[in-house]
Amino acid sequence: MKKKITLKHIARELEVSVSTVSKALRNSDEIGRDTKEKVQAFARLYNYKPNNIAISLKNKQTKNIGVIIPNIVHHFFTTVFRGIEKYASDKGYNVIVCVSDESFDKEVINMEMLANGSVDGFIMALSGSTQRQNDFNHLREVIEQGIPIVLFDRVTDQINCDKVIINDREIAHKAVSKMIAQGRRHIALVTNENYFNVSEERAQGYKDALVAEGLELDENLILTLAYDEIDEDLILDFFKREQIDAALCVNEIFAVCCMGIAQKLGFKVPEDIAFVGFTDGILSRHSRPSLTTVAQHGEQMGEMAAKMLIEKVEREINEDDDEQESYQTKVIEATIVERNSTVN
Amino acid sequence: MKKKITLKHIARELEVSVSTVSKALRNSDEIGRDTKEKVQAFARLYNYKPNNIAISLKNKQTKNIGVIIPNIVHHFFTTVFRGIEKYASDKGYNVIVCVSDESFDKEVINMEMLANGSVDGFIMALSGSTQRQNDFNHLREVIEQGIPIVLFDRVTDQINCDKVIINDREIAHKAVSKMIAQGRRHIALVTNENYFNVSEERAQGYKDALVAEGLELDENLILTLAYDEIDEDLILDFFKREQIDAALCVNEIFAVCCMGIAQKLGFKVPEDIAFVGFTDGILSRHSRPSLTTVAQHGEQMGEMAAKMLIEKVEREINEDDDEQESYQTKVIEATIVERNSTVN
DNA sequence: AGAAGTTACGAAACCGTTTTCGTGTTGATA
DNA sequence: TATCAACACGAAAACGGTTTCGTAACTTCT
Fold it and tell me: Does the CB of B156 fall within 7 Å of any strand C atom?
């Protein structure tokens, strides 16, 4: 096992100083031709690579970005992550992922771990319990320390920072309008607890559409499910009890489950009931019938978030100091992917 | 924006030396009661947290582990990652993820980036093109440098290191045997190019089962699909052409696609044809009928990999030096989750 | 030949810690 | 009272780089 070679080793071996070696390797013109060549050849021969940690310490820059997400086993977050990783990797940044598991405490711990020099900035989607208890001091502290944050999807008004979201409300409106245009009148909403900003937005869009089309809002047509565990009986009852000819579901899994249960009850999809979900994942593509769904363009979202973060990070380095902070919120335009759960 | 506070700041403020501050904070008994309390109080007040980078440099230990996987938008890898992250996080390690995108070049670049001090060890699944071209020098170099690697799932005999795999061959054998026991005789295998060690193993298990049950191997019953793009026509032809009453598919997506196409052709599942897939993801759970599949227990695999890596990393620190390297291969027992694609 | 400017390199500081070692002060002991 | 621990702290080195500054040796100019 040959240990990593350092500048000091090279310097000793070649009987020059460490500074000379450093400069020679960076092709400084302070160093003579011969010495440069000698050093570079030696370095190449022994496959010298500078130690990232030492450079980080010196430059006060890690070239790492921290990503904190509630759950990695989730198609949407995964695609966002891919976008982040792709962009970051391109720009020479590494990505450290922490999973908050929808837990406020873990989110706080993870942030604290990474905030002590491990990363140059954060990209995150808030955990469910953080949104529920509305406590964002951990974010504030990090920002206070001069570490930039980009929030995506699960965001909050209470923190002033860059954000990337989709036009949830608008696209939900559009999806419902489309079903109404098909002549459907009894439109259900299948959602989860409203402390999630996105669910709330989607519900708003749903209501907007009803109002815009002159339909009445019937609270009985709104089914609220738990976030992490689907109670099939609840769904069964719902579709038995109410007269429904269309349903907007706030995610892919809800949609597929509801669709399956409705089919079991003998309803034909899309003839009797149409379904629209959110998240264009494998489930939507491979369900039967295939699911019409809102594509959130997670990868694009991730790239955008990474771009915003890295720009902020690199701006801070050449801080002219007097430029005041300015934060933006980018909206990624969601699109509706029409499949067979709404039209044949 | 208050900048991070350092030992030096505290020292200056309290008019003691940096070493005193450091020791006081670590509760060294070299330091007097009063001084300790003074320092600790001050540190608490200003929320002092030591700089991880500096500690890493000093300790030659980053407390980071590098994970390199071919694809993050993939249920199996995602669950393995969750296991890794969970275990690592518990032990105070961070996880840096790089996606090789099934590309040899990216795999090499990512490893090189991380090997220069950014991580204490690697956990990885080989990219498709790495397996295809059989070039593992990047792994050898890293191991040479004393950085441990744990390979999982996509492994190779050509590298001597810790590995975590599942009993692919055995479980495939078992799955096929089960279908044969149901009286099925025309068993298809839907697989992909055989440079993936896992596909190869599963194919072997398939063949083993046929032999064990005295059935003949019919090459026509083996359908080979591309890794990343499913050609539906190919599948359609296959099920039209061959007389098939059961199919073992090397992944979830293949299984669901095939099942859908077979159903379109008028076959009843499981009456006419039974299907078994690999990977117990959402697709398997929510397909219609629900899919019998091989659960790979990715999370457990990830935990095991992380455990092995961290143990090796921490052993190296107190290297008695004379203990010879020993590598193990852990086999996670896969299980068959029976659902409605094989029995009603 | 002396002044001035180049060239090519080394010493040392610095990033933020930890840790070893040295030392001045105290109190106890012989 | 001289000796010796024990105590409490500071100086300095180390981790592996980068960068500023100083300077010896050599050129060039007048």
Answer: no
